[in-house]
Amino acid sequence: MLDTLAGWGMRPPVVVADAAYGTNAHLRAGLAQRGIDYTPAVRADVTAHPFDAQPTAPDRKGPVGCWPQPRYRHPAPSVAALATGLGQKAFTSLTWRQGSGGELRSRFAAVRVRPVGNFEGRSWPGWHHHVTLVTAAHAFLTEQRPVPKVPGPHSPSTRSSTPSRTS
Questions:
Q1: How far apart are alpha carbons 42 and 23 in whole angstroms?
Q2: Could you state, in order of their start, the residue ranges of all structural domains in the chain?
Q3: Three-state secondary structure along the chain?
Q4: What is the pTM (predicted TM-score) of this model?
Q5: For residues 78-106, b (16+ Cβ closer than 10 Å) or e, as one string?
Q6: Which of 40, 73, 87, 124 could make a disulfide contact with 22, Cβ separation 3.0–4.6 Å?
């Protein structure tokens, strides 16, 4: 969808995503690769390194063999632990609408972090795994789709989703 938008010469100023997308490393990597800023919500149990944390590689032992992979020296804390360490001034209280039990409000902090999960699609097995899952998900959603929508006065699209019968 974002690539289609880019094909029209447009790009979103920022992509906002809920927690289900916040843990999707493939989505985050794709947005970063396209230079699109994003701000996902994440569950409190998700782990991440502070943005200033840098992985370090141990010294290479011997003249042959592979270079050691860079690693973080300490395990990543949960984002809840990172948020606790920010202090009260880092948070902004927002009210976004009136709910049935009163105002819906919460406190938010914007923090740059380095996610722990590496995008596995950079290898042939990772790409194959990704494409297999996407194909299975697409087939499932297509099978579950009800009869095509009948266009009406409140349809969100001006284009009908029913195929034309011109034959």
A1: 7
A2: 1-41, 44-53+75-144
A3: CHHHHHHCCCCCCCEEECHHHHCCHHHHHHHHHCCCCEEECCCCCCEEEECCCCCECCCCCCCCCCCCCCECCCCCCEHHHHHHCCCHHHCEEEEEEEECCEEEEEEECCCCEEECCCCHHHCHHHHHHHHHHHHHHHHHHHHHCCCCCCCCCCCCCCCCCCCCCCC
A4: 0.48
A5: ebeebbeeeeeeeeeeeeeeeeeeeeeee
A6: 40
Spatial distance between the Cα atoms of 149 and 145, rounded to a whole number of angstroms: 10
Q: What is the biggest distance separating any 2 CA atoms in the chain, rounded to whole angstroms? A: 73
Neighbours of 137 (CB within 10 A): 10
Return d(Cα 49, Cα 70) in angstroms, integer. 14
Give tens-digit pLDDT for 130-155. Answer: 677 777 877 777 777 665 555 655 55
- pLDDT tens figures, 89-134: 888 888 888 888 888 888 888 777 766 555 444 566 666 676 777 7
In the numeric block, which tokens belong to residue 149? 């929508």
